[in-house]
Amino acid sequence: MGSRKKEAALQVNISTQELWEEMLSSKGLTVVDVYQGWCGPCKPAVSLFQKLRLEVGPDLLHFALAEADSLDVLNKYRGRCEPTFLFYAGGELVAVVRGANAPLLQKTILDQLEAEKQVLAEGGERKAIKDEALSDEDGCLSRGKDGRADEDVVSSEKTCTLAIIKPDAVVHGKADEIMVKIQEAGFDILTSEERTMTEAEMRLFYQHRAGEEAFEKLVRHMCSGPSHLLILTRTEGAEDVVTAWRDFMGPCDPHVARREQPESLRAQYGTEMPCNAVHGSRDREDANKELALLFPNFRFTDTETPQVPNTQVEPGLLSLPPDPHLRGQ
């Protein structure tokens, strides 16, 4: 309960036009996390905000939350999966950061705070901007507030992969910490969703392991509590995201990971099979299939990724033919 109070005090929730106008009149720099109701605010940013608040103090640095669907002024930000942070000073927009990129977010906060201090001290002019990037070219995928995919396919050249932070890591409170490390390792989190898997979903997801002795234990574990489902990509020109994510996770068995790859996520957060903290797709083919299964309403424009029909599919009811190549772990 204490941590929830801290978070509430750290970020003011702007839910009305009146509160928005009040926020614009705040002295100093205000960083607004614009979020969608279906996915919630950007949790990995909270620890960064807490750190910066302790370092620079609360007088000139403010943090706020604003749901795009609640405020008409944010109507152009509706239906976007990528986290968006708007920076306001003196009632003017001075910067925008898209994506949960902790280093970039920190640099922008410190740079804009320093610029605002200079304006307040010397009376100079602020460098107000317009957010010209409000176009379909920003995202790899798009989803409306009701959980359905937008009618138009959003353009992107990036490839994506599925990452799951498993129930064992979530129950020990490690999800946010793992997401920060994912970002620091150069991955972009396009969307993050906390969800408790159904037995039907997991039996289909791990159907290739149905004959193994550990199958039932694996299914029970994956349904034992909430997981964090992430869609990851990497910047253009970087290593293939599927391979990079598998390397960052490390060997499946946490004991082997600690011996062979001690800096990997499974070495740091896994305990023993199947509690190895994170899941990653085996290859590009598996990534496409797993994304289609767990995010059936998303539509990707990457040519390697299947175009999923814009229809509502209940979790656990999606039927796929048995595939010997599916190797989720």
Layout: helices, strands, pairs:
Layout (H helix, E strand, L loop, with lengths): L1 H9 E4 L2 H8 L4 E7 L8 H13 L4 E7 L16 E6 L2 E7 L3 H21 L38 E5 L1 H5 L3 H10 L2 E9 L3 H7 L9 H8 L4 E8 L6 H9 L4 H7 L4 H5 L8 E3 L3 H11 L35
Parallel strand pairs: 1-3, 2-3
Antiparallel strand pairs: 2-4, 4-5, 6-8, 6-9, 7-8
Note down, in words, how this protein is organized:
- The protein is α+β, with helices and mostly antiparallel strands and 329 residues long.
- A 5-stranded mixed beta sheet has the order 1-3-2-4-5, with helices on both faces.
- It has 2 domains: 2-134, Glutaredoxin; 161-294, Nucleoside diphosphate kinase-like domain (Alpha-Beta Plaits, 2-Layer Sandwich), CATH 3.30.70.
- A hairpin with a 2-residue loop joins strand 4 and strand 5 (92-98).
- The protein has 12 helices and 9 strands.
- It starts with a helix and ends in a 35-residue tail after the last helix.
Compact summary:
InterPro entries: NDK-like_dom, NDK-like_dom_sf, Nucleoside_diP_kinase, Thioredoxin-like_sf, Thioredoxin_domain, TXND_domain-containing. This protein is an alpha+beta fold.
Distance between the termini: 34 Å
* Overall 3D form: elongated
Strand content: 15-25%
Rg on CA atoms, Å = 21 Å
Oligomer class = single chain
How is the main sheet built? 5 strands, mixed
Q: In CATH's first tier, which class of the largest domain applies?
A: Alpha Beta
- Kindly report the spatial arrangement of strands forming the biggest sheet: 1-3-2-4-5
Name given to the CATH homologous superfamily of the largest domain: Nucleoside diphosphate kinase-like domain
> Helicity level, as a percent range?
25-40%
Structural class: alpha+beta
- Note the total helix count: 12
Question: What's the structural domain tally?
Answer: 2
Number of strands: 9
SSE string, helices as H and strands as E: HEHEHEEEHEHHEHHEHHHEH
What is the annotated CATH architecture of the largest domain?
Answer: 2-Layer Sandwich
Which whole number gives the mean pLDDT? 77
Low confidence ranges? 1-8, 135-157, 301-329
**CATH level-3 fold name of the largest domain:** Alpha-Beta Plaits
Region (Disordered): 302-329
GO molecular function: nucleoside diphosphate kinase activity
GO biological process, one term: UTP biosynthetic process
InterPro entries: NDK-like_dom, NDK-like_dom_sf, Nucleoside_diP_kinase, Thioredoxin-like_sf, Thioredoxin_domain, TXND_domain-containing
